[in-house]
Structures are given as C-alpha cells and as structure tokens.
Sequence to fold (165 residues):
Amino acid sequence: MAAKKKTETTETPVVEATPSTEQAPVTPTHAPVVGAKPAKEERTGIVYINTSKNNTMIHMTDLAGNTISRITGGMVTKHSRLKADPTIAMFVAKKAAERAKDLGFTALYVRMRARTGSERGIGPGAHAAVKSFDKEGFKILNIVDTSRVARGGPKKKGGKRGRRV
Fold:
C-alpha cells in the first residue's frame, strides 16, 4: 500500500489593525479592460449631392443646417466638359471630406438630387461621390434620392391638336 502523505497547513497570523486617522487607498474592485478604446463622440452631418449631366455639387452641413463645406466640380477641374465626370466627383467628395474630418464628423446622411424633370435621373457623379465618402471612413447612415418630380406642370405649347408643322 502506498503511504499517505500528510499535508501541513500553515496558518497565517492574524494582525489586528490599530486605529488610525489615515485610511489606506481604496483599490477598485474591477480593473479596466485592456485594449478598450474610450467612447468617441460621433458627430453627424448631412451631405447634399446635386448632380446633373454638366456638373456635380456637394454641400455638407451639420444637423442644424450650418454649412461645413460647399465644393463643385468646377473648383477641382479647369475643363468644363469633365465637371460631371465620376472621377472628378470623387475628388470633389474627397475635398469636402477633408474639411468634415477636421471638424470631427464621423457619420453622414446622404441626399442625392437631380434636376427637376430630368429623364435620365441623377448624374454620373453621384454614386462615385457616395463611394468616396465611404472610402474616407465615414459611416453612411442613410441614402435618399430627393429629386423633385414634375406632376402635371405648365401647359405645353401648341393648343388642342398640337403644333402644326
């Protein structure tokens, strides 16, 4: 048979605390989580992207409506034929995003708009601008097409039987 080993328990002596006026510093019961980042304040803005077949305009505001930046395709390129190009729209969005980042904006509501009664819809630069804002690190909260739609409108020229040629 195997011999049983007797384990000795050592008792620590109990020291009575002497009454004193000073108290020991209190240590927190829970330690902060390692690697946790402090909560960053999220500032939200609204981006109005107005596109046509000739130009791209980006107007960025805060939620109260105060203008942060207003950039157009003509401010980025000298060639008027390129103002509505998706590549120029990316540069326009990048320029507007720099200003917003400096002011601490992190999230955006996007409102795209085309000309009223435009048969083609929004211009070629709108989608490129939204993708550019996403690449710059903004959180896109909502994308809305706010183009105005003509309903009826003024009477067309020509009378009851149309224009006679």
Remarks:
- Helices lie at 86-102, 126-135.
